[in-house]
Structures are given as structure tokens and as C-alpha cells.
Design a protein that fits this description.
The complex is a heterodimer of chains A (577) and B (87). Chain A has 23 helices and 16 strands. Chain A has 577 residues and is an alpha/beta fold. Chain A has an eight-stranded mixed β-sheet with strand order 1-8-7-3-4-5-6-2. Chain A has an eight-stranded parallel β-barrel with strand order 9-10-11-12-13-14-15-16, surrounded by four helices. In chain A, helix 1 (37-66) packs antiparallel against helix 2 (68-81). Chain A is globular. The two termini of chain A are 38 Å apart. The mean pLDDT of chain A is 90. Chain B has a single domain (2-86), classed as HPr-like (Histidine-containing Protein, Chain: A, 2-Layer Sandwich), CATH 3.30.1340. In chain B, 36% of the residues lie in helices and 24% in strands. Chain B has helices spanning 16-27, 47-52, 70-82; strands spanning 2-7, 32-36, 41-43, 60-66. In chain B, strand 2 and strand 3 (41-43) form a beta hairpin. The longest helix of chain B has 13 residues, at 70-82. Classes of the chains: A alpha/beta (577), B alpha+beta (87). Chain A binds chain B through residues 72, 75-76, 79-80, 83-86, 112, 115-116, 119-121, 123-124, 127, 131, 278-280, 301, 304-307, 309-310, 312-313, 316-317, 320, and chain B through 7, 9-13, 15-17, 20, 23-24, 43, 45-49, 51-52, 54, 56-59, 84, 87.
């Protein structure tokens, strides 16, 4: 039987299932006499002290094994146990309800869990798990039950549980626990975060796996694919063991080249950078060896807020990004709303063709106050790092001129106030409209760089709605028409001594890397996790070889032919390296 | 009694580490301190209360303190929020 869940931590494991169930706790619900209240309060205080002592030890262990971020999870729990309102809430319950401390704790914890689960924020909902975990610990200590946990396991297993609390997860010993499979949870659960930190393969949110897998039976878990197989055939076991070996070698090789430059065999350097949506994504950029940010999507800042972020709020966010990137070039794209991206705080008309409608730079030029506010925020943040500005959805030179005029006003305003900014800040155009690609020669005279947004360029060039599944087979980035537009843009920039990057999906596709390198692309911007794979391809190529590949592909007539050819090229490269 | 209004700057809102930092700082003062949003109110020294307010970025909150160090307490907490929690 195959179970499908969220793939939260990569890796493959084959081992007996260890069904981890917690035995129910028996609580005495009878009422107490008024003179027993003080005793109950004392027992409660002692249980709190014991809980704090246990967690302080756990914190030390977590810090030593997993570092600061894991220790912070326990810190948050220690704060909950020491919270004065937890104590007064429980005290009130005991005194007004004449109930035992255990019952009072159960009530109070339940109330907080409900309050947290109602908050419309994934992060805070997950904090309900912290409170539940803390509540169980206090209860067990109140009732003098031994601590539970997976720390006592001493044989290799895949843990199968309904849910794993943070305390459970921190006790995990990687040498015995080969995988984690749970009924509930997702990418932001503690279990997921810690599984990744410990590099234990994990699949969460498998719904009812605890009911369908029996204790001790051998199961296979594929953390990358989000699969668990029960009752595997000997053939499946063999297949997955081979896949595991392959994955491990592959990962090791990629890890090794993470921080190597993206140089070709003949010493040509390209920039491999990342797309981000918030300052929180930068950790992953650094981890995967990104050399900068090729696209910072500022609209997420706007989408998360219930009002239009003020200049000051935007400045703070951009400053964080600039500082965290520590001098590495970071391209900030001005807001790209409209199309499929709506703002809760900004009224947009209902349009028949939103992708051909009022979006991105078009909105900004109609609402210059909003646009200028963002430009001032970016300019002010530019002294904290190497920031660049990029306008989305430019269709021709008139829009670029209007945008640049507003930028000039923003600069003049700051100058008048004596606020410092990078006066040489570079300004680029995102090329995603075919008309812009075809008039690149005009645009480049008034811009410093281009970045090709292949997702929209492809949809506009091929007249294919990328949300429409019925025609999804027509959405083909390798269509010769799309590739010719890309070539025009790159060639035009080069002829004017300027560079071209790419920040659409295509830039992160290892299959496309040789072709794009051959066409002369200067910067590849992609999701951070894709960086090592693309870097690997670039490092196996020479510019001359890539140019030959590009020339050959550009001479083909159909996307099928090109895709088949690039697959062959990729296989040849892989087998020769 | 002393109070001041301030807007939450950092993108994550008053969650996680920012909430922890906020409560830890509040606990260092003797005054009674509360934090309120337009529709809720809670003890600034209680992590449970602060988290359950679910304060997102852009929310305006009011910090109020009563006690012998009320002014310093409010000003330090407002400053922490304005700094974007040094992120």
C-alpha cells in the first residue's frame, strides 16, 4: 500500500515501523474540599519547577546536538511554563471550581490551544503544539508519571506516530531513527524543521498511517517524494536501496560544490543567484551558495499586510535584506500585483483578462504616490548593501521613461532632505512582454540591465494562459519563438555593453542551463534549492561547447526536438563527468 | 499611568523570537504592563497572552504601564518594536 503526504525532509529509509502511541493519562475529576486547595497549588508549583528543570536539561541537549534554532524552541516552551498568567489561570480554576490541579491544567491548556488554533496564521497555529506539549509535560509531572519519548529507542526503526511533539522530536537519535512518518503536520511543523536539521527523512500529514501500519512491519519511506510504502515487495526494497545510494552520492557531490564559483571549464564566470519573497528566505540562499538575489518579490510584503506598507515599513524590510546579503547584489523588483496576485488592502477592478490587465508597472504609473513611496524606501535602504531596482511588465520605452522620471523625483526628494542613498543605483527592466523583447534596443539605452521573466514571456509569446490546464501542453519554454526572443534580448544587451539575467522557472532548469549559457546569459536566478544542480551543469561546460549546443538548438523547428536534444546533451554531460 | 502607541514593523509580526524578546524585556520592569490591539488586550509579561493576540506586521499596538518605572518600561518596549527587533 502507498501512502502520500508532505515531503518535508529528503532521504530514503527502509526499516521496521515503530508505532509510537501515547497511553492516555488518567485524571481524577472528583471535586476537592476547600482546605485541599493549598495542597493542590503546592503540587502544581512543584510540577512547574520539575518541568522547568527537565526542559533546561533538554535545552542544553538540543543546543549541543542541533544548535541555536532547536534550543529556541525549548526556550519558548520554558517561557510558557514560567508564564505568570498560566499560574494565575490554574490557581483561579482550582479555587473557583474546587478541582484538582491536573483538571485545572487540562482546562487552561485547552483554552489556550483553542485560542491559538483560531488565529489565521500558520506559525501561530503551530504554537498550539508547543502549548499542548508543555501541558502534557506538566500533567505527567503532576501525576508523577515517567517522562515519555523516543530517546530510549535502541534499534533502527521508522517512527510512525499520529503527531510528534517538539520534546519527542528533540530526543530523536539519528543513529536509530531512520525516518519519521506522521498522520498530521506539514512543512512548518516542529517535527519537519527538526527532521531537516537532523537530516532524518520525513513524510508528514499521511492522514491515517498509524491505523494502517502495524508495529514492527517493514516499511519504505521516501522523504523527497513524500511517499511511504507498506508491505513492500523484495523488488521494491531493492529498487529503493539503489535509489538511496544514488541519492546519497548525488547529494554529497552537490554539497561539495555549493560554495565553488559557477565557472565554466574555460574559466568564464556566470552568476547564480536566487529568487526570494521575504527576508526569511535569505538563510536558504546563503546555505545553497547563492551569489546574490536576482529577484526579490516585494509584493509578498504587501500581500501579507492589512494596509499598504508605509515607506518606513518597506524601508525596514529592504534594509534587512540589504544587510543580510552583505554587499552581494540584490535586485528588488517593484510591486508586481494584479494578474493572479491580489492585495487585501488595495481595491482592484474585476477584469476579464487580468493577465492582460491592470497590473505591475501599469498600476504603479497610475498610482505614482504608492510607487514613489516604494522607490524612496528602496533608495534609503540602498546604503546598507548593493541594491538594484527592477521594473516588471514594461512593454516599451514610454513606460520605462515614466518610471525613471518618478525615480528621479524620489531621488530629488531624498536629496532635498539630506537623506543618503546610492546615487549610482542600477535600474533594470524585467523582460516579460514580447514587445519589450523586440524593442530591447530602445530600452537598453535607458536601463542598466535586463532580466528575463520567462514565465510571463512564455505565456504572452505563445498566447497560452498558464493557469489553464486544458492548454498546458502548449506552454513550452523551449518553443523556438520564445528562445528567439530570449536570444534577441541577450544579444542586444551585450551589444550595448550591458548584462542580462533570467529569473523565471527556466533559469533553474538544469536542462536549459547549457542552452542559456550558450546564448550568453550572464545571471541565472532561481529558487535557492535549485542552485547546486544548475551550478553543477555550468561547471561541466565550456563556453565554446555551450555555444555549439545553443546554435544547434536554435536551428531546430519544434520544442519537442529541442527538448529531446537538450535531454540527450544533459545525459551525455552527466555520463562524461 | 503612561502609554504610547507604536506600529509593528518586522515582517513576522509579534511572533516567535520577537514575542519572546518583547516578553523578556517586559519582565525586567516592576510596573504592570499591558499591550493592546484595537480589539484585544493582554499582559505584556505573559508570552501566552502576547502570542494569543496574534499581532501581525502593520498592526498598531498600545503599550501601557503603571508603576514606578512606567515611563522607562514603555519607552524601552516601544524602542524594541521600532528597531524591528534588531533583525
Amino acid at each position: 500500500m502507498i501512502f502520500r503526504g508532505s515531503p518535508v525532509s529528503v532521504g530514503i529509509a527502509t526499516a521496521p515501523a515503530y508505532l509510537y502511541k501515547k497511553e492516555p493519562i488518567v485524571i481524577d475529576y472528583t471535586q476537592i474540599l476547600p482546605d485541599q486547595e493549598e495542597d493542590e497549588l503546592m503540587i502544581f508549583s512543584a510540577a512547574l519547577d520539575l518541568s522547568i528543570a527537565q526542559m533546561t536539561k533538554l535545552r542544553a541537549k538540543a543546543y549541543e546536538r542541533l544548535g541555536e534554532s532547536a534550543a529556541e524552541i525549548i526556550d519558548a516552551q520554558i517561557m510558557i511554563v514560567s508564564d505568570p498568567s498560566l499560574y494565575t489561570d490554574v490557581e483561579n480554576e482550582i479555587r473557583t471550581g474546587h478541582i484538582r490541579a491536573a483538571v485545572a491544567v487540562e482546562h487552561v491548556i485547552q483554552r489556550y490551544i483553542i485560542a491559538f488554533s483560531e488565529i489565521a496564521d500558520e506559525y501561530l497555529r503551530e504554537r498550539a503544539a508547543d502549548i499542548k506539549d508543555v501541558g502534557m509535560r506538566i500533567l505527567r509531572n503532576l501525576l508523577k508519571l515517567p517522562p515519555t519519548g523516543l530517546g530510549l529507542l535502541d534499534l533502527e526503526v521508522i517512527v510512525v506516530a499520529q503527531d510528534l511533539s517538539p520534546s519527542d522530536t528533540i530526543m530523536l537519535d539519528k543513529s536509530y531513527i531512520k525516518g519519521l512518518a506522521t498522520d498530521v503536520g506539514g512543512r512548518t511543523s516542529h517535527a519537519a524543521i527538526l527532521a531537516r536539521a537532523l537530516e532524518i527523512p520525513a513524510v508528514l500529514g499521511l492522514k491515517n498511517i498509524t491505523e494502517l501500519v502495524s508495529h514492527g512491519e517493514t516499511i519504505i519511506l521516501d522523504g523527497g517524494a513524500g511517499l511511504v510504502l507498506s508491505n513492500p515487495t523484495p523488488k521494491e526494497i531493492q529498487e529503493y536501496s539503489a535509489k538511496k545510494e544514488q541519492e546519497q552520492t548525488g547529494r554529497k557531490a552537490l554539497e561539495e560544490l555549493r560554495f565553488l564559483p559557477a565557472d565554466t571549464l574555460d574559466g568564464h564566470k556566470v552568476h547564480i543567484v536566487a529568487n526570494i519573497g521575504s527576508p526569511d528566505d535569505i538563510e536558504a540562499v546563503v546555505h545553497h551558495g547563492g551569489e546574490g538575489v536576482g529577484l526579490y518579490r516585494t509584493e509578498f510584503l504587501f500581500m501579507k499586510s492589512d494596509h499598504l506598507p508605509t515607506e518606513e515599513e518597506q524601508f525596514q524590510a529592504y534594509k534587512v535584506v540589504a544587510k543580510k546579503m552583505a554587499g552581494k547584489p540584490t535586485i528588488i523588483r517593484t510591486i508586481d500585483i494584479g494578474g493572479d496576485k491580489k492585495l487585501p488592502c488595495f481595491k482592484m477592478p474585476i477584469e476579464l483578462n487580468p493577465f492582460l490587465g491592470w497590473r505591475a508597472i501599469r498600476i504603479c504609473l497610475d498610482e505614482p504616490a504608492i510607487f514613489k513611496e516604494q522607490l524612496r524606501a528602496i533608495l534609503r535602504a540602498s546604503v546598507f548593501g548593493a541594491l538594484l531596482i527592477m521594473y516588471p511588465m514594461i512593454s516599451g520605452i514610454s513606460e520605462l521613461r515614466k518610471a525613471n522620471a518618478i525615480l528621479a523625483e524620489a531621488k530629488a526628494e531624498l536629496q532635498a532632505k539630506g537623506i543618503p542613498f546610492d546615487t549610482n543605483i542600477k535600474v533594470g527592466v524585467m523582460i516579460e512582454i514580447p514587445a519589450a523583447a523586440l524593442t530591447a534596443d530602445c530600452l537598453i539605452k535607458e536601463a542598466d540591465f535586463f532580466s528575463i521573466g520567462t514565465n510571463d514571456l512564455c505565456q504572452y509569446a505563445l498566447a497560452v494562459d498558464r493557469m489553464n490546464e486544458k492548454i498546458s501542453d502548449l506552454y513550452q519554454p523551449f518553443h523556438p519563438g520564445v528562445l528567439r526572443l530570449i536570444k534577441t534580448v541577450i544579444d542586444t544587451a551585450h551589444a550595448n555593453g550591458k548584462v542580462t539575467g533570467m529569473c523565471g522557472e527556466m533559469a533553474g532548469d538544469p536542462l536549459a542551463a547549457a542552452l542559456l549559457l550558450g546564448l550568453g546569459l550572464d545571471e541565472f536566478s532561481m529558487s535557492a534549492s535549485l542552485i547546486p544542480e544548475v551550478k553543477k551543469v555550468i561547471r561541466t561546460l565550456s563556453v565554446k561547447g555551450a555555444q555549439e549546443i545553443a546554435e544547434c538548438a536554435m536551428g531546430m523547428e519544434t520544442h519537442e526536438e529541442i527538448a529531446t536534444y537538450l535531454k540527450k546533451v544533459s545525459n551525455d554531460l552527466a555520463s562524461s563527468s | 499611568m503612561y502609554s504610547q502607541a507604536v506600529t509593528i514593523q518586522n515582517v513576522t509580526g509579534l511572533h516567535a523570537r520577537p514575542a519572546t524578546q518583547f516578553v523578556k524585556l517586559a519582565a525586567t520592569f516592576q510596573s504592570q504592563i499591558s499591550i493592546s490591539t484595537p480589539d484585544k488586550n493582554g499582559d505584556a509579561k505573559s508570552i501566552l497572552m502576547v502570542l494569543s493576540l496574534g499581532i501581525a506586521q502593520g498592526t498598531q499596538v498600545k503599550i501601557t504601564a503603571e508603576g514606578n518605572d512606567e515611563k522607562t518600561a514603555v519607552e524601552s518596549l516601544v524602542e524594541l518594536i521600532q528597531s524591528g527587533f534588531n533583525q
